[in-house]
Amino acid sequence: MRTLSGMTATVASNLSEVARSDAALRAFLHGLPGVDQVGADQRAAMLGTRSIKTTAKAWALDLAIRMVDLTTLEGADTPGKVRALCAKALRPDPADPSCPSVAAVCVYPAMVPAAAPLLAGRAHLASVATAFPAGQVPLSVKLADVESAVRDGADEIDMVINRGAFLSGRYLEVFEEIRAVKQACGDAHLKVILETGELATYDNVRRASWLAMIAGADFIKTSTGKVAPAATPPVTLVMLEAVRDFRAATGRQVGVKPAGGIRTAKDAIKYLVLVNETAGADWLHPDWFRFGASSLLNDLLMQRTRMSTGRYSGPNYVTLD
């Protein structure tokens, strides 16, 4: 897999110049090395065959739990459901106090007030904003959405990019919108959702990753979970390469969050291998890698119990979210 060329790294060192005009931004993004699709697919598949066992597996299960953004994004969400989810996030296994809590709870902005008092200082509170999942509203509405969520207690914002503008080549428009949302976040961290299932090519995933990072993203996220395909290992590989190369070029580290379709502990461990072998061990921390998931936590808990007791507990052991 190719990394940044010398020319690209030189341009990346001066991000204000990269985004000085639509033409300059387009030249930079289209000057990024192309992604070898076959190579990316093969490498992701090969890394997916790696297996870890015993104490390493126990460590990986606990790390994966600590990386979960426990998520509910349904039209039928209620404050009661969100409060129950927060309780589970803080004590995933009430019978085992050694079980770690998750990284964050992720909800719609309207549900932030229900979650904030329960999570304050104990886990992050993430909120999808900018008219998630489509993002088809004016920028002023998106900014109000963000400001409301932050005011009510969210310390992380998951925004969606304007895919129509990106796919039409209006890169500066996407850049300026991300910058505006980043400013509206204040001290809250910004995760930028690329919706990779709509970007069509790995080259577009790499370009969108760099565009989001140049604009100030703290994390880049694969998907809303509402579009298929959502997270996939090859797409996540391309994004991990992007954050690795971005740090090499700029000195700033950015996180990655695959979201949607990751349901089993086995899958989560495959992603941890992918992180270690692509970006490196520095990203094996909840500050730099997350899973956007609802059902994944249950399987992680069941596998954790099986390792500690020798018995597989079954789905009735855990709560249904």
Automatic annotation (TrEMBL):
GO BP annotations listed: carbohydrate catabolic process; deoxyribonucleotide catabolic process
Presence of keyword Amino-acid biosynthesis: no
GO cellular component: cytoplasm
Catalysed reactions listed for this entry: 2-deoxy-D-ribose 5-phosphate = D-glyceraldehyde 3-phosphate + acetaldehyde
EC number(s) from the headed UniProt entry: 4.1.2.4
GO MF: deoxyribose-phosphate aldolase activity
Family per record: Belongs to the DeoC/FbaB aldolase family. DeoC type 2 subfamily.
PANTHER family (alphabetical): DEOXYRIBOSE-PHOSPHATE ALDOLASE
Record protein name field: Deoxyribose-phosphate aldolase
